[in-house]
Task: structure prediction
Amino acid sequence: MNANNNLDSFSDIRVVNLLTPRFAPTTSLEFKAPAPRRRTLWQVVRIGAVAAMVAVAVIIGISGVQTSTAREGVERAITQLLESDSYLIRFTANVTESKRTQDELYNIEFEGVPTQGIVEIRKEGSKVKMAIKWQDKARSMELYDGESYQRYQNGQLVLERPDGGIDLTPFATIDKLKEYALLTGVLLKFREEGDMILVSTRGDKVGIVARFSKSESRLLGAECSGLYNGQQVTVLTINQIDFDVLPTE
Amino acid sequence: MKLTTEEKQLTRLAELMQSERDNLFRYACYRLGSAAEADDVIQDLYLRLSKQKARLAEIGDLRGYIYRSLSNSCTSILRSRRPLAPIQTLDTLSSEELATTDFEQEYRLIERLMAHLPDEQSEVIRLRIYGGQKFDEIASICNIPLTTAKSRFRYGIDKLREALEERGLI
Result:
């Protein structure tokens, strides 16, 4: 059988030219197979892991700046932000106490009790240090210094165990973020609504929506929510984010 | 490190999606009229397929399967859109509208031209011109004989030529 694939030459070239795209947009999507048996940060973006969930919600939000101004300048800004800045994030999460003592203090659950907390993230060299300070009766504090996890209650160290901390490097650029999302099964969308850029993810159980102001060049807030008993329930709200702040006491 | 069957299939899928990325994206763009939606539908497709893992091995023509799935996804999105103003026919098309200056105008023009054709002809033309597929590949994607793929393309182009000539547009 004649498998001539150049039938266009037998067709009316004027019509073919009319149909041929001249203004086709381009895409930056990258598809790469995951490294074998790789454990990913997205796996902890689920009901349960408070620190990772807050960090990812904020980092995804920060990445919204990408679409607001020139790409190179913004990428530099994001890189600088991730490499040298500290963040202080005030949040409210629906939490229940973990049943296993070696786990983190609280799990985020749909039916949990709304509890306020502050996450401090500081990057020191290649390490990301993080502290969660809970506004609970025991004034609980959880520390991640890249090597260990420590829990303090009423000012006393009550638990310490090795912990590798959280790797934020996959979020250094928007391309890395998109690539990471694709590798790990998370749909990432960017939408503009007036001055607002909405960055959203959709995972298996919960999704994150972050709001970014173009004119103010800053993240306004983020929410994590999912379907529970047929209703959309917000399990985590980022109330306020401050950059370049000194650690709280 | 030795790859598991699932990892091999995911690697195969990722390599295929990467090599076909621009064609898939352009096809979706000119079906949906939106680069953002095209990005989304392709990401969604990749995620859906990657969740099938080992089952991917059972799909003989994965390439054709990807294009068929993308076509179906685009059709679903177009159906789910709220009814908009009907696509204008070629009767009101002016020669000025043939000289497009951006993607949006170009998409609207192409949509109008495609609307003049039966679905099976427009699909072959889209796969050929926007998806960059060869006729034997189109035949495989559409599950039709090679001669049918070619004739659908030719009949579609001829139909458009006649319509445009009748209206003095070419």
Chain A touches chain B at residues 1, 3-5, 7-8, 10-12, 14-16, 18-27, 29-34, 36-37, 181-182, 185-191 (CB under 8 Å). The CA atoms of residues 138 and 154 of chain A lie 5 Å apart.
